[in-house]
Design brief:
Blueprint: E1 3-10, E2 13-19, H1 24-28, H2 40-56, E3 66-67, E4 73-74, E5 81-87, E6 90-96, E7 100-106, H3 111-114, H4 116-119, H5 122-128, H6 133-150, H7 157-160, E8 161-167, E9 172-177, E10 182-191, E11 194-201
Antiparallel strand pairs: 1-2, 2-6, 3-4, 5-6, 7-11, 8-9, 9-10, 10-11
Length: 202
């Protein structure tokens, strides 16, 4: 079974991560293609992410998905709120009937350490004191999840998404999203070499 992680967050919200082991024909029989993707692996990621939506909520109307100018996929009637992320051979999705959501998965790479000043403020560096590539990646991933939750683009990760605290059990960041003055809790997990972050809010 390619689903390596699945969680029912609440009665209306579900999350899953799919390890892509199938070829494109497996997904094309089930999932409509919504945009032209020429790179074969990116097409696989695209298809797997959309396949997950209906895997999590049978009957999810992915034939109705539209793409906003910010490239965020959405349903016009908002019957479901959803967010998709891809990385390497993995696709992740979170779907909710009632709440706004955002998700991100990342494979830690050294580059994230060299660009840390672009997405973390000196105050965040002092507060979180990240020491490893994985810890820096988790901060980046958390901010990506908030960005996708917002969905309207034009977000400066360093200035507009401020991590204000860390909670150990369960692992999460407290965030202040400055553009809407929203206080968010970003849930964090590390599994199968991935950093997972997701946001669920009203």
């Amino acid at each position: 079974m390619p689903v390596i992680f699945q969680e029912e967050i609440n009665r209306s919200t579900r999350l899953g991560i799919w390890k892509i082991e199938e070829g494109p024909d497996f997904f094309r029989e089930k999932v409509p293609v919504h945009r032209a993707v020429t790179h074969p692996h990116k097409m696989l990621q695209h298809l797997a992410g959309r396949f997950l939506l209906q895997y999590l909520f049978p009957g999810f109307p992915y034939h109705l998905i539209q793409i906003a100018e910010t490239r965020k996929p959405f349903l016009p009637d908002e019957a479901f709120h959803f967010s998709i992320s891809h990385c390497g051979d993995y696709a992740a999705a979170i779907v909710s009937r009632e709440q706004r959501v955002g998700i991100d998965i990342e494979i830690p790479v050294e580059k994230v350490v060299s660009i840390r000043h672009k997405f973390m403020s000196p105050l965040e560096m002092e507060l979180l004191n990240p020491l490893s590539m994985e810890e820096y990646t988790q901060v980046w991933s958390a901010k990506e999840a908030v960005y996708k939750w917002y969905g309207l683009g034009k977000v400066d990760f360093r200035e507009h998404i401020r991590v204000t605290g860390y909670n150990e059990a369960p692992s999460s960041f407290d965030c202040h999203f400055m553009l809407t003055d929203s206080r968010l809790n970003v849930h964090l997990q590390q599994l199968s070499g991935l950093c997972l972050s997701y946001v669920v809010s009203e």
